[in-house]
């Protein structure tokens, strides 16, 4: 970690009250950025911001519904008002979507997943990009998923939203390169959080069941994603745009398929 790599940067993190989002906010703060933490659940955003302030960082909590244009616009304006500009946008917010096929998943759930996971990033970029241009450029980091690469049965809405986010980010990179704005995705593997562990019945079960699907034989940690986000947001990635960074312990390379020995099949 570099304590001054993000000095002078102003970052807005959606879903910043969540486990991965708050880890990214802490990491960017530790590297010198001022961070605006925006979440639908404002209490979680406030807790994440208070923890950073208690550690000596500069942080602000904002409520946002990224799927609502006016709310997304106001979150960007709030960050700019508080800190005087915007250089860094990290889109982490995602909806919890029930499993279901095209036949069984209610249209409202399909639309909610697309609205928050995909259109939400579009809306945040719509309002953030001009402010980032005003600030002399910067970096957008969109949190996609290994399931945006390898799709699984019954999760059409989630997989489609994340695959679309990867495609959208590549177009963003092209559209805003001349403004000095880089855009990249991170595709995490299974990261041990409350949300991801629910379908395994809790974190301990998830560690046991999901870990072996990764070549490195463990689930990811939120800090693995925070480290990648800080890299992509920083000038260490000054020549990196339009790419997807798999932080997945080798899950996609080995297709997440485990053999009879309980390890990824080669
Ligand atoms: N945990 C994993 O295994 C994993 C794997 C791949 C990708 N991801 C992605 O990483 C991101 C974070 O996941 P997490 O495990 O930390 O989940 P999390 O539930 O802890 O965080 C998600 C946050 O998004 C917020 N949110 C939901 N709807 C919102 C809205 N409309 N507007 C603003 N905020 C909203 C939630 O309140 C929550 O704080 C998500 O995009 C997820 O798809 C996670």
How would you describe this structure in keywords?
alpha/beta, Rossmann fold, binds nicotinamide-adenine-dinucleotide
Number of domains: 1
Can you list the strand order of the major beta sheet? 3-2-1-4-5-6-7
Order of helices and strands: EHEHEHEHEHEHHHE
Helical content stands at 40-55%
Shape by Cα distribution: globular
How confident is the prediction overall: mean pLDDT? Answer: 95
CATH superfamily: NAD(P)-binding Rossmann-like Domain
Evaluate the radius of gyration. 18 Å
Second rung of CATH, namely the architecture = 3-Layer(aba) Sandwich
What is the structural class?
alpha/beta
Straight-line distance between termini: 34 Å
* CATH fold category name: Rossmann fold
- CATH class descriptor: Alpha Beta
Q: Which compounds are bound in this model?
A: nicotinamide-adenine-dinucleotide
Major sheet size, sense and barrel closure: 7 strands, parallel
**Uncertain residue ranges:** none
Counting DSSP H or I runs of 4 or more residues, the number of helices is: 8
Question: How would you describe the overall organization of this protein?
Answer:
The protein has helices spanning 19-30, 42-54, 69-83, 107-134, 156-176, 194-197, 203-210, 222-233, and strands at residues 10-14, 34-39, 59-63, 88-91, 138-143, 181-188, 244-247. It has 266 residues and is of the alpha/beta class. It has one domain (10-197, 216-247): Rossmann fold, CATH 3.40.50.
